[in-house]
Amino acid sequence: MITFCTSKLYYFLKPAIPWPIRIRARRLLADHLRKQIRNSWPILPSSAKPPKGWPGWPNSKQFAFVVTHDVEGVRGLARCRKLADLDQALGIRSAFNFVPEGEYRVPDTIRAKLDQDGFEVGIHDLHHDGSLYRSSRHFSEQAPRINRYLNAWVASGFRSGFMFHNLDWVHRLNMLYDSSTFDTDPFEPQPDGVGTIFPFWVQDGDRKGYVELPYTLPQDFTLFVLLKERTIDLWTQKLDWVASHGGMALVIVHPDYISFDGKPNDSEYPADLYKRLLKYVISRYGDICWVALPREVATYAAQFRPSLVPSTYT
Ligand SMILES: [Zn+2]
């Protein structure tokens, strides 16, 4: 398993390693890892226990379904409109998380249009180069810049690049929720999960706090690019399990890896796979599922402050 230190070295060297070599190495590691984690991925049975003070979902809904899109690079940025149209055509509103100072700049017009159409806009890291969590001091130096974007974009949420996380440091950001963790995902460079399929409150001493929204469905990149899955069976298997335990099915889908032209390359998968997931949720759970934006779930959870205490994660 890759340790946090090794992964820091990896992100330092990453720009110098060609993509075909990187992805081949990651696929070998992922195939090896997959054989060892059958009892903890994609389902970690202990994560079904609700946090203390969890009130259940509003309007007696059985579970929540939350769609988020992380826009990694210029390729993803160019596909945002198509992805938003796909969501909209099926009646889904999702959150688009943009990198403020990465390899692209987000035109104000794109953010405004998403906002106008009922989508949410969030912050995804700052540079998306794996450096944000390098040290506590470095994080503190970057936090004011991230806070400026949170304020300027009127954004409620933050997600780090590569799902690096330290729930204590995140208190330095002025947002309603963080979504940089997961219930279980051993394929991530910092693989310690929070072990819950529910939103939970992270308190900062007796001062403020924020809501943590772990993602709970496998990432599209992991399923279709790394593991080369050709069906959505792992998505629906996990979704059914989360639904049966009344949790939050939160998925991350990247426009960068979706092929809309029917000719996916080695780092892409057909848009139809994602479309099938949305159709599955709507047709099977339409009446009993709260299809919500992450900021809506966070606003709801913040009223009750469900807590992981006694904490499985500190
Ligand atoms: Zn990312």
Task: Looking at this protein, list some descriptive labels.
9 helices; globular; TIM Barrel; two-stranded parallel sheet; 37% helix; alpha/beta; 314 residues; nine-stranded mixed beta sheet; binds zinc ion
Describe the structure.
With 314 residues, the protein is of the alpha/beta class. The chain has a single domain (4-48, 63-304), classed as Glycoside hydrolase/deacetylase (TIM Barrel), CATH 3.20.20.370. The chain is built from 9 helices and 11 strands. A hairpin with a 5-residue loop joins strand 6 (200-203) and strand 7. The radius of gyration is 18 Å and the shape is globular. The model has no long low-confidence stretch (mean pLDDT 94). The chain binds zinc ion. Zinc ion is lined by residues 70, 72, 124, 128, 161. The site of zinc ion has 5 residues, from loops.
User: Helix/strand-derived class?
Assistant: alpha/beta
- Shape summary: globular
How many independent structural domains?
Answer: 1
Number of helices: 9
Would you list the SSEs in sequence order as H and E?
HHEHEHEHEEEEHHEEEHEH
What is the name of the CATH class?
Alpha Beta
What is the assigned CATH homologous superfamily? Glycoside hydrolase/deacetylase
Question: What is the CA-CA span between the terminal residues?
Answer: 21 Å
Hetero groups: zinc ion
* Radius of gyration, in angstroms, nearest whole number: 18 Å
Please tell me the overall pLDDT. 94
Indicate the CATH topology: TIM Barrel
If classified by CATH, what would the architecture be? Answer: Alpha-Beta Barrel
